[in-house]
Design a protein that fits this description.
By secondary structure, the chain is of the alpha/beta class. The protein has 15 helices and 13 strands. The strands form 2 sheets. The chain has a 7-stranded parallel beta sheet, sandwiched between helices. It has a 6-stranded parallel beta sheet with strand order 10-9-8-11-12-13, sandwiched between helices. Strand 8, helix 8 and strand 9 form a beta-alpha-beta unit.
């Protein structure tokens, strides 16, 4: 089949969707040699990114903005190249074209917690996103929880939604025994002797405010510092979190909180391994790739009862109500205080991480292409 892939988002800020796209594409090309892939960029400087793959063609649509690119530029390429399928690893699809259309639903927070978005984003979500859902021939939900939210809020045919979990790279994220490597990373980032870790992009949905308040409750009980690995995204309203940081500093805890900024993926496994606890009580996670990474690296987890985290950790994490500061604090207490529980969580997490992988994800996405393209019976499962 001829498959077009929309890559307008390819240069966006570091984060889950970008990581998903760059992890998935090479595997689609290598595991699907029978297909011809046309990569559709907005930036001509990206031409040649995947030139090493013989079944890949790269083209540029030189249209500004988003709507014109999606609704005029991509359909033009689709017709010109006689594409059978248009696939977007993010979201949005061209509404009017006979090619089959598939996109990836990375999270249902638009529907579940609309209050954290600006009014114009809420309007867009209410009016346009349901159209993407209904116009698509299929879409991929990165967690069963996301699929159920989509069914609940948009009233879709469940047969057009395929749950395919995200993955991780076990060659990069694993239990590190090399003490010299651990020591080097600890020195490079000036990490404290004992610390609680959080990883991601700092924003309101990540529940940083309540995590800081919970840490304030236990800071006098444990020698651990709280370490944040991740960038603050200006487009996500983080004023609330930054205000809470100022409050924590007023309480005299400024020396117990450390911001690393962006941490290279080559160093991140060692940071997980050095931490005594990974605290990830997000208000909402469509999946939560850091959860897999933490499990694979042997770091015990405290995470939320809401949306995808319970599905992802599947018994390998301590679950807390993300809206309850006392519950978050108690969860951290339990895991930090109970060494037997910690060892059980580490062992369970190492096993659970084996259930995920980008190759597995890519094979399942290719199976969806076959089903939607007619090369495989629709009743045949991709899981």
């Amino acid at each position: 089949m001829k498959i077009g892939i929309m890559l307008r988002h390819y240069e966006q800020l570091e984060g889950g969707v970008k990581h998903y796209t760059r992890s998935l594409l090479p595997l689609l090309f290598s595991l699907g040699p029978q297909h011809r892939f046309t990569l559709i960029y907005q930036n001509p400087r990206l031409l040649g990114t995947y030139a090493a793959y013989p079944n890949v063609e790269e083209v540029v649509v030189r249209m500004p903005g988003t709507v014109l690119w999606d609704q005029l530029g991509v359909p033009w390429i689709t017709r010109n190249k006689s594409l059978d399928i248009i696939f977007n690893p993010k979201f949005t699809i061209p509404f009017f074209h006979k090619a089959k259309k598939i996109w990836v639903f990375h999270g249902s927070e638009w529907f579940v917690i609309p209050e954290v978005f600006q009014w114009h984003d809420q309007l867009y979500t209410k009016l346009v996103v349901p159209l993407y859902c209904k116009r698509a021939d299929a879409f991929i939900a990165v967690a069963e929880a996301v699929k159920q939210d989509a069914l609940r809020f948009v009233k879709l045919d469940p047969n057009k939604i395929f749950t395919i979990h995200n993955g991780y790279d076990p060659k990069k994220f694993y239990f590190i025994h090399d003490t010299e490597r651990l020591k080097a990373v600890k020195t490079r980032y000036q990490l404290p002797e004992k610390f609680i870790l959080w990883v991601g992009q700092i924003g309101t949905r990540k529940n940083i405010t309540r995590l800081l308040r919970a840490f304030a409750q236990i800071a006098h009980e444990y020698p651990h510092d709280l370490v944040f690995a991740g960038e603050q995204r200006a487009k996500q309203n983080s004023k609330e979190a930054m205000s809470e940081i100022a409050t924590i500093r007023q309480l005299g805890l400024e020396k117990r909180i450390k911001f690393l900024g962006w941490v290279e993926h080559t160093d991140l496994p060692a940071v997980y391994r050095l931490a005594d606890l990974f605290a990830f009580p997000s208000i909402y996670e469509g999946f939560g790739i850091p959860l897999i990474e933490a499990m694979a690296c042997g770091c015990p987890i405290v995470t939320a009862t809401t949306c995808a985290p319970p599905e992802v950790v599947d018994g390998a994490g301590y679950l807390v109500d993300p809206l309850d500061v006392d519950a978050i604090a108690q969860g951290m207490r339990v895991v930090l205080s109970d060494s037997v529980l910690r060892e059980k969580m580490i062992a369970r997490g190492l096993e659970r991480a084996k259930d995920f992988g980008w190759e597995k994800c890519a094979r399942q996405v290719l199976a969806v292409f076959d089903i939607i393209g007619g090369a495989r019976p629709a009743a045949q499962s991709v899981l």
